[in-house]
């Protein structure tokens, strides 16, 4: 039997993604997969941003009753409103089978209330946030609260963190979404009725799993359950075919071949002084150098401290490792995009970077022009590195294999084209999200020294795997032509 208020904001958002997700969340929560570390980290950052937002309302009162004490939380909220409390955190309301908790309920000077939803995002995105604020407006208005303003509070990407405590007045920005939220609320009742009908049905709704449903905007916690027994063929017993034209192009690349990979972080709350929320900060590189005679060497660099912006050291050490002859081999446009960003951010190192990779000149000039600056005429330096995208220009265009249908990612290509290397799943750091989390933990001053050393070793091994995989993919494609 359903409870009096089986729905909530989070369950409404689950229903928008998939009706079966809502049904399972209410009736069979035990089938859910525990959140991945990256998902839990996103929740944790959200809590930190929410706590930061509360400091903008000195004297505010927290409704302390937990999720399983909703009736008590509603009563406590009502008491606080009656007593004239101006700012209430986690205010609780129930209406039409839906229960919600408001991040901040602020009493306006002219009467009525402002409903504030806090998000650890960089801006208001109607596709993601309007349903969120809309259902809260629906419940609070339906419960009889005089809501006159609805605000989405989010991080301000123009804020440059100088170090020390974050300034809540500067790192957070607010977007007025009152009109949109009220319009949305007016159309909520049929949605609620449909959700209740789903939950009261004798059988769960029938939904065919697909990436479009199950992984967007976020991967559903019931994905593993819904796809149980469905094993896509790995095709590892099928030999890849390599296009001869692509293989020939690989053989014509100018030696030495410099296989390069970067790792970055883009935390919601800045890690390094002088950076902004969600700024992409370059923190690690790996370079495998392959000579014409087959000799292979490796260089690497990883940030060691969060005391300063690491990017000048990142770039200077990278340029020293690259030299100015040969081919800069990358697996996607990402590395070149990040170098363009560094050229724009670090004018003192711009000339050296462009002398190393002269092919970046036009993109750097455009980046500077977009912000009203002009790049000096292209220097006639001669030499420098050529660049080649191994992923897009070779694997995507020149390799045929069932496991690569629709993808050319390095993780998909590795077991097909570099089977001698261990799978990424066997590494301590398995993917980019895990690398970001490991970097943040390694730089945290409260992390014990032994753990920091362990994380550093794992991060270096992960980035090295990427560039070594590129070497092996190159060799395999050339040999199979």
Provide key terms for this protein:
single chain, 481 residues, alpha/beta, 7-stranded mixed sheet, 5-stranded mixed sheet, 19 helices, 14 strands, globular
Task: Summarize the structure in words.
The longest helix has 31 residues, at 449-479. Strand 4 (98-107) and strand 5 form a beta hairpin. The chain is an alpha/beta fold and 481 residues long. Helices cover 43% and strands 17% of the residues. The protein is built from 19 helices and 14 strands. It has helices spanning 9-17, 19-27, 37-54, 70-82, 126-142, 168-171, 178-185, 189-200, 211-214, 223-226, 244-251, 311-322, 334-345, 350-356, 361-370, 390-398, 410-417, 432-443, 449-479; strands at 7-8, 61-62, 87-95, 98-107, 113-118, 147-155, 172-176, 241-242, 257-265, 281-290, 296-302, 327-330, 386-389, 399-400. The strands form three sheets. Strands 1, 2, 3, 4, 5, 6 and 7 form a seven-stranded mixed sheet that branches. A five-stranded mixed sheet has the order 11-10-9-12-13, with helices on both faces. The protein has a two-stranded antiparallel sheet with strand order 8-14. The chain is globular.
